[in-house]
Amino acid sequence: MTDWSAALIVPDQDFAGAPLLRREFALEAGHGDVASATLHASAHGVFEAFLNGQPVADEVLSPGWSAYEWRLRYRSYDVTALLRPTSVLGFALGNGWWGGRLGWNGGRGYYGSDLGVVAQLEITFADGHVQRVLSDGSWTAGPSAVLANDLYDGQTIDGRRVSDAWLAPGFTGEGWTGVHAGELDLGTLTPYIGPPVRRQAELAPVSTWTAPSGRTLVDFGQNLVGWVRVRVSGPAGTEVTLRHAEVLEHDELGVRPLRSAQATDRFVLSGGDDVFEPTFTFHGFRYAEVDGWPGEPAEGDLTAVVVSSDLERIGQFACSDDLLNQLHSNAVWGTVGNFLDVPTDCPQRDERLGWTGDIAAFTPSAAFLFDVEPFLRDWLRDLAAEQQAADGMVAFVIPDVLKYVTKDDAQATSFPAPDSTAVWSDAAVWVPWALWQAYGDRQVLVDQFDSMAAHVRRVETLTSPTGLWDTGFQFGDWLDPTAPPENPILAKADHGVVATACLFRSATIVAETAALLGRAEDQAHFTEVAARTRAAFAEHYVGADGHITSDAVTVYALAIVFGLVEGEQRRLAGERLVELVDEGGYRILTGFAGTPFVTDALTTTGHLDDAYRLLLQQECPSWLYPVTMGATTIWERWDSMLPDGSINPGQMTSFNHYALGAVVDWMHRTLGGLAPLEPGYAKVLVAPQPGGGITWARTALQTRHGRVAVSWSTEGPDGFSLDVELPEGVSGLVRLPDGTEREIGAGEHHLAGEPATA
Ligand code: RAM
After folding, report:
1. Pick from 747, 719, 743: which is nearest to 732 by CA?
2. Does residue 275 or residue 407 have the better pLDDT?
3. Which of the residues 141, 504, 643, 727 could staple to 533 if both were Cys, CB 3.0 to 4.6 A apart?
4. Where are the domain boundaries for CATH 2.60.420.10 in the chain?
5. 702, 193, 748: which is closest to 439 by C-alpha?
6. Given this model, what pLDDT does residue 2 score?
7. What is the CATH class of 199-309?
8. From atom 3 of ligand 1, which residue's Cα is the shortest distance away?
């Protein structure tokens, strides 16, 4: 933690929301060489920092989006190698989340329009002397080549104004002004817990053609998040425009799903050889439409740059079914695209918010694919801060920008006054719990316990006298495919059943967490809440015939997986579940609430084959239907694109929403056969359950203990065979498809599938 004494400095003019700020300074003499130099920096807006003309880091869009009211994160950079006797420290700012648009109704600048920098450069000399260069009133500010910038709408860069002169000593720029102190409580400055955003990969176009409109269309072959870097030359003043979209419709760019987001970058040519990279925006796109290009873009002129929080890929999966492999790849790309500083619902339209329900559903999957622990622990700090200021309520989105959208605003949300809602607010409990399971570090539980407990306590006040959580607004089994496209809330599953089941699950987890942390009183309390909720559920929702109110796939899935039914009732629930799945023709019948659990519910009640039939269904709606339609990311709706190739008429149609991709968690554990038996894979359950005609699967995970790998095949000479690799210090329980079990230790094991002999 740095001891901050710098001020937030704000340019005296706003310079089109993209000011440059600079300070020239000389190293203090008489202290010997520089031993080390560290720059600490943050901003209102997003910043790029330079020392003596060099970027101090390869990251973009820092300091990202946090619950700024309580946490403004700063970055720290070792800049020792960049210092010179006379140095220039410079910052380029963009609107980012602070000053730009947020939400779907056109509002901007919810946090403030005062873009500014807070920076502290600490230079330690050989003799121990420390020189500090702070952001203060001695800095100057001026215009950049960026004429407009917004995360949703895109960026305009005038190549005629691009120059590095401001980063060199002696610069006295025309039109430059002073700066003044902005408002910032230095106590809100806090170091990043998660990784910064960086460029992850580059993709070349796979095809380029002329659309009926006469404009050039480019296909990058993958729905991705980032921007296009453009290399172009032509007459000075020529304007090249790039619009971005995820899909095509009627042979043109399909921009309707973006709603009001313009996703348009404009580049004004300098007359020389230009390279433009719009780093103060990002787009969710597979296609770009190019207009105004002098001649035709040549190979290497257009490069898609993938941008994301810098997550380490740790989990791998492949099997004999290529459609499933594509589904898995879609979930991977969905994670990359939607882990851009905040875990977002989607990355392309005028939304891109930290919707809590989406990440509540998807954390177990994401935590296997990537090391998301620091990223989500960072976000959970925001969740806790927002929650604390809202009497324990966990908002729909974190950071909660919707709280600034007032009812009489033109931008009023269509949702009623928010209160805790099942699945969404349960993120407070389910996300830390999933991180504990995946990584085995109880610190996340220590840090989040108060937030977890406060969520359940808040919901306790919302239950009706019956003990059911059947009051207030609920998203319920959001986007159940049988709900009308314009009203995704009208799911078949009863809202009270879903919410009460979620309360039971959360109370159970908080009780278990309290036990782990040695909080006996809390443990007793939440155990009691769970028991009471379970009893109310049984009394009011479960009939004598085992039917559960509303008789929808999701209610059985939740009751089974959350442990609300047992014994004969559980068996009946499993039977009814499979009947409904069968009646539905093995097409999916679940939304956000039920989808992460339906395959587990089938599997654990003895209906593995039905789970595979559901997973392998290709007719709409199903997991594989989008794959057959060429999807390269997980869609928001089961039918974001209709079978005739047109875009779903609903107002809300994204092609990059990870929530429904949560089935990959089941694929890792059940098809792949790699699951934690103890948190963090200190002990591994190796229990592949082949089915669906799949003949092999390979699953591997870089755990905190080392690499775990499981691969099986039915193609070998001995029928089923299984290979397992466990790292030092890790043991495993192997359960073969025939049910036989054996314990294994670290090392490589080859097991053949005939009844195992110990
Ligand atoms: C949509 C979001 C998100 C969902 C909410 C309820 O606007 O895209 O996925 O959580 O609604």
Report:
1. 743
2. 275
3. 504
4. 676-753
5. 702
6. 84
7. mainly beta
8. 345
According to DSSP, residue 390 is labeled T
What percentage of the chain exceeds 70 in pLDDT?
98
Contacts of residue 30, defined as CB under 8 A and 6 or more positions apart, other chains included, come to none
What would the mean pLDDT of 278-284 be, rounded to a whole number?
Answer: 98
Catalytically annotated residues: 351, 636
CATH 2.60.420.10, applies to 676-753: yes
Strands 252-253, 59-60: pairing is: unpaired
| pLDDT tier at 755, thresholds 50, 70, 90 | very low
The atom of ligand 1 lying closest to the CA of 636 is 9
The pLDDT, as a whole number, for residue 418 is 82
- Cis geometry, peptide bond prior to residue 257 (ω within 30 degrees of 0): no
Residue nearest to atom 4 of ligand 1 (CA): 355
Q: What percent of the chain has pLDDT over 90?
A: 95
Task: Provide CATH 1.50.10.10 ranges for the chain.
Answer: 312-671
Higher pLDDT: 665 or 719? It is 665
At 605, list the tokens. Answer: 């009640």
pLDDT at 105 > cutoff 90: no
Ligand 1 geometric centre to CA of 540 (Å): 30
Any idea of the CA torsion for 64, 65, 71, 75, to the nearest 10 degrees? 0
> How far is residue 624's CA from residue 635's CA, in Å, rounded to a whole number?
11
CA of 258 to the centre of ligand 1 (A): 14
Q: Is the CB of 435 under 6 A from ligand 1?
A: no
List pLDDT tens digits, range 176-231: 999 999 999 999 999 999 999 999 999 999 999 999 999 999 999 999 999 999 99
Class (C level, CATH) for 312-671: mainly alpha
The reported pTM is 0.97
For ligand 1, whether the C-beta of 419 sits within 6 Å is no
Q: How far is CA 112 from the centre of its chain?
A: 25
Instruction: Determine how many CB atoms are found less than 10 A away from the CB of residue 146.
Output: 26
- Distance from the alpha carbon of residue 660 to the mean position of ligand 1, in angstroms: 12
Task: Give the end-to-end CA distance of the chain in Å, rounded to a whole number.
Answer: 54
Of 360, 366, 332, nearest in space to 558 by CA: 360
Average pLDDT over residues 307-322: 98
Determine the pLDDT at residue 416. Answer: 67
Is ligand 1 within 6 A of the CB of residue 652? Answer: yes
The answer on pLDDT for 409 being more than 70 is no
Domain 9-145+160-193, CATH among 2.70.98.50, 3.20.10.10, 3.40.50.1000, 2.60.120.260? 2.60.120.260
The band of 415, judged by pLDDT with boundaries at 50, 70 and 90, is low
What is the pLDDT at residue 410?
47
139 lines ligand 1 (CB under 6 A): no
Strand partners, 468: none
The closest-lying atom of ligand 1 relative to the alpha carbon of residue 356 is 10
Residue range(s) of every CATH 2.60.120.260 domain in the chain? 9-145+160-193, 199-309
The residues, any chain, with a CB within 8 Å of residue 433's CB and separated by 6 or more, are 445, 509, 513
Provide the pLDDT confidence category of residue 717 given band limits of 50, 70 and 90. confident
Q: Which residues pair with 288 in a beta bridge?
A: 218, 244
pLDDT for res 651:
84
Cβ atoms within 10 A of the Cβ of 12, count?
A: 13
